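Table 4 source record.
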Amino acid sequence: MSCHLAVDIGASSGRLIVGLYNNGKLELEEVYRFKNQLVSTDGRSCWDLNGLFNQILEGMRQCKAAGYLPETIGIDTWGCDYVLLDQDQTPIGHPIAYRDDRHEQSAASFLNKYSSENLYAINGLQYQPFNTLFQLYQDERLEQAENFLMVPDYLNFLLSGKTCNEYTNLSTSGLLDCKTRKPSTKLLNAAGISSDLLCPVTPVGEVIGNLRPDIAQSVGFDCKVVAVPSHDTASAYLASPFKDQIILSSGTWSLLGAILDEPITEEAARAVNFTNEGCANGQIRLLKNVMGLWIIQEVFRNLDGRYSFAKLVELARNDPYEEIFDVNKACFLHPDNMIETIQNDYRQRNIAPPLTPGQIADAVYRSLAYAYRQAVLQLEDLTGKMYSAINIIGGGCQNGYLNELIARETGKTVLAGPVEATAVGNLLAQINAANDPALCQSILENSFQSTAY
């Protein structure tokens, strides 16, 4: 039996999950969980990466206290954000978060000199004002910088003392040519970024190094630091047992797409805002970002937690409301009150709004299912392929009612699971399965079951 440790950090929380691998089967156990939140520093929204690193170290100590001595560790996080290091390999300033409002101006300024059509033809990324390329374009710290590290690469650096730029997270930056999978000289020059700033692109599965001696002493064991798919969605997609079907990573945000051998960068893909990002084995995830369970999470919060998520599903089944709304409207991104925003949207369209908790929840679920249907139609049009199933992975796959609605709306078989997809993909890379499709598939089939709808 071998033991491995996945560090999975999202925008609001993180956890450390042990993976025990024995006779082709992978078993999971969560050993530590912690919160993550933005901090305001010098008027900017920033990440407390040193605080996160201390939480990782505490989680590693808790791992040993629980009786586990992992052979390897891997870290995945969100994409786009980065750290700049000076010549002494010390961070320059604070790591500014993608949610900071400075990025709009930088993105607009870059696109004044480089058209979005030409940009998409190279990096294949959907427009987001916080794409790393735009962030770097007006980053005054570049003149002092000797190294550029995405957030998980920086955390790996703190563990191992070694610098690298892992492929899947770097693919979210806008700095890569999505066809060559290498940094684009054209885009680096356009943004005024020296190519010397980047490390060579590190493939998934490569061993970065062992723990620094002081870290090993602090946590009570040594292990190898592995370059896992460090973009959390890339790890989640690696955990899909149905890689030839549509995959929907369902959580606070929804990412619906398919795994392809090559990117699609034609104008038709840009027009519907699909993005080309990296997979563990060098393939491409052609994705559409769809508003996810964020909306029902905010409804839950507005109801002061009076109803559990399971209760909201029950109420939705028993108090249906069939009129839908466009979940991808900007007004649903960060409203002061989600319920009022939903109801106002209906009133503006001269439709009687949902009123009861059940009606509101049902409106959300039906609207999400419809949004997925539209994304599926766009995906099939772009790829020229008809898919028979949708594999829903991540925490959202546990919502049986939503799964039923998606199956009904799309006419596809819905296959739900695994739930802990991100951690599973992280661990698969650590046990050398990321670039061995047959081994990866065998482990997934032996270890996790999917429910069909």
